[in-house]
Amino acid sequence: MFSLSHHRLTALCSTTFLLGTITLAAPDPAGMDNLSGPVCEAAAPAVKSWDFQKDAQNWAFIGGWSYSGDASAVWDAANGGCLKVNVDFSDDKDQSWSEIKLSDGSVTKASPIRVGAGISQASFDLYYDASQLKGDAALKAKLYASSVKDNVVIDQPIDDMGTAKAKDIPGTTWKKTHVRVIFEDKVTEDIAHLELSIVGYLTSYKGAICIDNIELK
Ligand SMILES: [Ca+2]
C-alpha cells in the first residue's frame, strides 16, 4: 500500500471511508474515526510545502561540506516550476559524502515554521540526469532543522533516493524520483532554520538537478 502514489492513496482513503460508513451496522463517530485515521495518515495536509510555481520561494545555496565546486539555486519554469540546483561534484568524485546545503532563508526565529501538532515526515520530487550516475555513483540527501529553542530537531540522512524506481522523462536522459522520509522522532518545536542538502556519493555529476514539491507533514 505504501508504494502507491499520493493520489492513489487519497482515492483509497475515500473508498475505505465510504465502505466503513456503509458496512457499520451501528455507526458511531469514534468507530469511523478509527477506520479512516490510520489508512488516511499519508493524505494528511502538509504543515508546510513549497511548489516553486512562480519563484524559488527564498531557497538558496548556503554552503557546502566536503564540497569544492560552485553551486547555485535558481527558479526554473520546467516541471510546473521547480528549484534548479546547478551542481559540480567533478572535484569531489572520490568523496562518499559531498554536500550542497540549500535553505529557505525566510525561515528564521522571527518567522519560524509553526509545526502545530507536529511534523513526522518530509517528501520532495527530484529530477536528475541519470546519464551522469554511472557505476556506484549516487545522489543522496540530508534534511536538517533547528528549532526556535536552538535544538536540532531534524538530522536525517537520506541514503536511498528511490532511484531504482525512478521514472524516465520521455525523450531525455532525465529521471524523476519521489523521495519520502519518516522521522524517528516527531518534530514538536517550531523550526527556525531548515536545510535540504543534496549529497554526492562517488559522483562527478556536473550540471543541473531539479527539486520540486518539498513537503513537511
Ligand atoms: Ca512545481
Automatic annotation (TrEMBL):
It holds the Pfam family CBM27. Keywords: Signal. InterPro entries: CBM27, Galactose-bd-like_sf. Residues 45-216 form the Carbohydrate binding module domain. It comes from Selenomonas montiformis. Residues 1-25 form the signal peptide. This is Carbohydrate binding module 27 domain-containing protein.
